[in-house]
Request: fold
Amino acid sequence: MNTANLTRTEAAARSAAVTVRDYRVELDLSQAPDPDRAGFATTTTVAFDATVEETWLDFIGVSVESVTVNGTDVAVVYDGARIALGGLDAANVVVVRGTGAYSRSGEGLHRFVDPVDGQTYLYTQYEPADARRVFACFEQPDMKAPFTFAVRAPSGWEVMSNRPSAAIQDNGVVQDVVFSPTLPISTYITAVAAGPYHRVESRWARGELTIPLGVYCRASLAKYLDADTIFEETLQGLDFFAEHFDYPYPWGKYDQVFVPEYNLGAMENPGLVTFTEAYVFRGAATAAQYEGRANTILHEMAHMWFGDLVTMMWWDDLWLKESFADYMGALASAEATQWSDAWVAFANRRKAWAYLQDQLPTTHPIVADITDLEAAKLNFDGITYAKGASVLKQLVAYVGRDEFFAGVRRYFRTHAFGNTTLADLLTELSAESGRDLAGWAQAWLQTTGVSTLTLEDGEIVQTDPRPHRLAVGLYDFDATGDLVRRDRVELDIVDARTPVTLAPAPLRLLNDGDLTYAKVRLDPDSLATVEHSLDRVTDPLARGLIWSALWNATRDGELAAHRYLSMARDFAPTETNMALLTAVLANASFTIGHYLPEKAQGTWRADWLESCWAAMLSAEPGSGAQLAWARATAAAASVDGRRAADIRTMLLEHAPEGLAMDPDLRWSLWTALSATGEATATELDAELERDDTASGATAHRRALAARPVAEVKAAAWDSALSDTTLTNDHLDATIDGFRAGHHRDLIAGYDTEYFAVLRSIWEQRSIEIARRIVVGLFPAADSLAGVDEWLVANSDAPNALRRLVIEQRDHLARDLRVRSTN
Reply:
C-alpha cells in the first residue's frame, strides 16, 4: 500500500483517537538562495491528547533526523510518508526534526529563482495534503489546531505567514521571525511566503475592527502591479461579506501575494492568500481578464468564512467551501464591484465547465464519495465548483435570499473553528427557511448528470428529470430591430414533460435569467431567428445563454459544426461582452480542430484565420476586442501559415494601430510562426533576449518545442517524460509545444509509448506532475483502440490514474462521434 495516500477510513479512526492541542513549526530557510541546497531544516513540536498508544504523523521529505516523544528520544520509524509514534500517554508532546525538500512542482514549499535579477522567492501550497512536505503533521482537515510558525530567512526578505509577526531578531545576515499563534485551522491552509517581495499596504476598517492589508509580488513585476485596483476590490468585498455574513473577519490581517509557477488560480490561506502572478498583467488585458481576477479575489475572500472558519470534515464535503466560494464570488462581483454583469460570465464560462464535467463517465455528485487523498486531488473540478455554485443559486431562489443568509449566519455562529458535513448546513438553512431541504439535497447534491430542456409542441421536455424553477423568455423585435424580452413565464417543472402555454414569439428562450442548472435547446423557429439576428439580442445574459445553448448543441452533435462556426464568424465581431467574446473565440477554434471531419478542417482553418485577421484590423484601436481578436489570430495562425508574412511584419516592423504588442502577445505570434515552420531557433532566441524574464523563458521553451521537426518533437517528448528538473510551468510549456500545430503525423508514433509508461509515470512522479503528463500527452488518435486496450490491461491501476485516462477517452470518443455527424 502507498502510505502517502491517506484513506478516509484511516483519517476518521485517527481523529477519533487523537485531539491536537497546538503546533510550533520552525523552518530554516536561510540557505534558500544557494542552488546547491536542495532542502531545509524543519522542526515540528506538536502537543496532542490520545486514547491509543500508537499513531503516526505525516511527513514527505528528504529525511527524519530525530523523534522525541514526551522528552525521550525514540527510534525513527519512517517509510517516506509516515512517522510511527508509539508509547503514547493521554497527553503528549512530540518533536520531529527533519529535512524537507524545496519543490519545483508547486507542491509544498516552492522555490523560484527570478532570471531578471537572480533573486529567490519561496511560497507554500498545500491543498489537499502537501503541508506534510514542509512539516510533520496530522494531515487531515478535521484535526484543527493553533499554529505558531518560526522562520529563519535571509535579512532583507519579506517573511509572511497566516498571522502578523510577533518578534523579529535580525543580525544583518539572517532574521528570525516568530509569528503570532493562529486560531484553530486545518493544516492545508497554513502558509509561509518569503523572499524580496515588493509590498504595498492599505487597511480596511469597519466599526471597531481594523484589518491591515498587503499586496505582494516579485520585485521585477512591481511596475506592473495595479495595487490600487486590487485594494479597491478587496475593500468592496470585505464590506459586502461583513454585511451579509455578520461575522467579524477573524484572521487579523489580509495579505494577498502573487507568486510564480503557481498550479492554481489562488488559494485561500487565512490571512495570506496566494494568487497566480498571471493576474499581474505585464501588458494589455481585456475586461474579461480583469473581471476574472476580481471574481477570484472575492472567491478566495469568501473562503475566509466558508472553508477557513468552518471547514468540511473530510473531502467528501469539499463543496461546502468551493461551491459557496464560487457562488459568493459571482454574487459579490455583480453586487459590490463594477462587474455588474458577472452572472453573464458565470452562465457562459463557469457553467460550461460544469456541463462538460457532468457528462463524463467519471462525474460524481456534488457531495462526493472521496475515499482517499488521490481522489480528493482530482475532485477540484467543474462539479465541485461551478455545478455546486449553480445549485446554490437555485437554493437561494428556493428558500429566499433573506432566509438563506440568515441560515448562513447561524451556520457560522454554530460551527466557528469547527468541521461540518452536509447535514450541519441543511439543519441551519432549514431552521431559518422553514423548509425541509432533504428532498432538495437528494435531487441536486447527491445525484449526477445534467438535464436537457427542450420546447416541443407546447411542452417542456427534459431528459434526466429533476425539479427546476425556471423561466421562459419571449423575445420579439422592437421598432429599432433589436430583439428584446416582451414577456416572461416562470414555472416549476418536475416531470419529463410539462405542458406550458406560451404566446408566439420569434425567440423563446428556456431558462431565461439562468435560474436553473440545465442544458437548453433552441426550438427550430428560435434557432432560425438566432442564426440571422443573434447580434440584435440586447441583453448580455440572454446572449450568453444563447451562446451556451449553441455550444452545448454543437458538442452533443445536434447542431452542425459549420452552423456554429458561421454564427461565430458572423456575430462574434459585434459581441460587446468580453467574457462572451473570449468564450466564443475559444469554442470556435476548438470546434474546427475537434468536431470537423478532416476534409472540412482545412477550409474552415483558412476561413477562421481570415475572419480573425479582419476582425482584429477593424476593431477599435486599443480596445479589448482588438486584443482578443489578435490573440485569436495567433491561435488560428498556429495551424494555418498563410498569414505568416503579415505576422512577421507585426512582430518586426509595425503592428495595427492601437494594438499593444506586449511580451505575451508577441510570444503567441512567434509560437504560431514556429508551429507552422516559419520561425527559426535563432529568431526565438532573439525574442528571449528581448524578454529575458521567467515568462519569457517559459514561452521560449514552448515556441522551440512547437517547431514541426521530428527531432524537435523527439526531444520534447523525452524531456516531458524524463527530465525531472523541469518545473511545473516548464513541463506544461514542453507539452504544449509538442502538441502545437496540426502535426499529428509527427507525433502519432509516440502513442504506443504513452500507454506503456503511464503506470511508471504515476508511481514515480508527484500527482501534480503525473496529472499534467497523463492529460497533456494523451493521444489525439482516430481510434479508441489504444486507450481501450490499456484500460482492459490495467484494471488494477490506481483509481485516480484510471479516472484521468477514462476522462480523456471520453473526450476523444466525443470528438470522434461528433466528427462523424458532421
Remarks:
- The chain has a mean pLDDT of 96.
- The CA atoms of residues 109 and 124 lie 4 Å apart.
- The radius of gyration is 27 Å.
- The longest helix spans residues 799-821.
